Amino acid sequence: MSKRTHSDIGDKQMDNPKRAQPIGVFDSGMGGISVLKELYQVMPQEHYIYFGDSKNAPYGTRPVEEIRSLTIANVKFLLEQGVKGIVVACNTATAAAVRTLRGMYPDIPLVGIEPAVKPAALQAGHPTILVMATPMTISGDKYKTLMMRYEQKADIIGLPCPGLVEFVETGNTDGADLKVFLENLLAPYLREIDSIVLGCTHYPFVRRLIQEIAGERVRIFDGGNGTAREMRRRLKEAGLLSAHEGPGTVTFENSLASEEEIELSRTLFQKNLF
Fold first, then answer.
1. Are residues 170 and 211 in the same domain?
2. Rounded Cα gap, residues 72 and 108, in angstroms
3. I want to staple 42 with a disulfide (CB 3.0 to 4.6 A). Which of 22, 140, 228, 265 is the partner?
4. Does the global pTM surpass 0.90?
5. Closest Cα partner for 77 from 46, 105, 96, 51?
6. Which residue of the set 200, 220, 231, 240 is catalytic?
7. Is residue 2 part of a domain?
8. How many helices (H) and strands (E) does the chain have?
9. Is 90 known to be catalytic?
10. Is 1 within a domain?
């Protein structure tokens, strides 16, 4: 695996070795930083190692076997860094590999992410929901099972969004070209939908632009906060919550091993998503 560079944010903790270990967060690139932000809000005392596999992004157009292999390799890397739990902060990687990973590491708190269809579907009045996701997520069995679970409560439309991840990977979250891309993508659905589910962790970084195009009447949902709360629950259950009282550290690592990627990671971590 290629050499990685990193940057630390916050204070260092030298405490109980087990509880003081960091939480590992993984994504196919920059998108999972949106989940990392939620984790840091829910558990600011924890330490985090974020690994973005930007070298192989996007995952959403790759074969499922390749996605699974990449995900397993990158989770192994995080475990080698001594993390106490893993967040697979990628919808595509969750769909392709989380079941396999739980079989491989039954004693490690491991949380994936899936499109936040449940809260969107439980709105009053049988809503019409547009799920924006990668082609692999939309075509996967995990997504299909999720849709079947809520098809009696809402009309659910799956919208594959090839090309959208690449905007975020280059740091373009509000450019004119991105706005045109999103307008063309969303235009056929805007009259009929009540809400949008952001089914890829890259998409919260363009949430403001999506909201501007869709209008204020359309509610937007994503699964980041629920994932963060689930990881907190599992760590608490395992007695692994940090005893550290100050702000935790955040270490960014990337498969491209370039300072530009680390700087972009820092920038996105500081970005206000709402």
1. yes
2. 14
3. 228
4. yes
5. 51
6. 200
7. no
8. 11, 10
9. yes
10. no
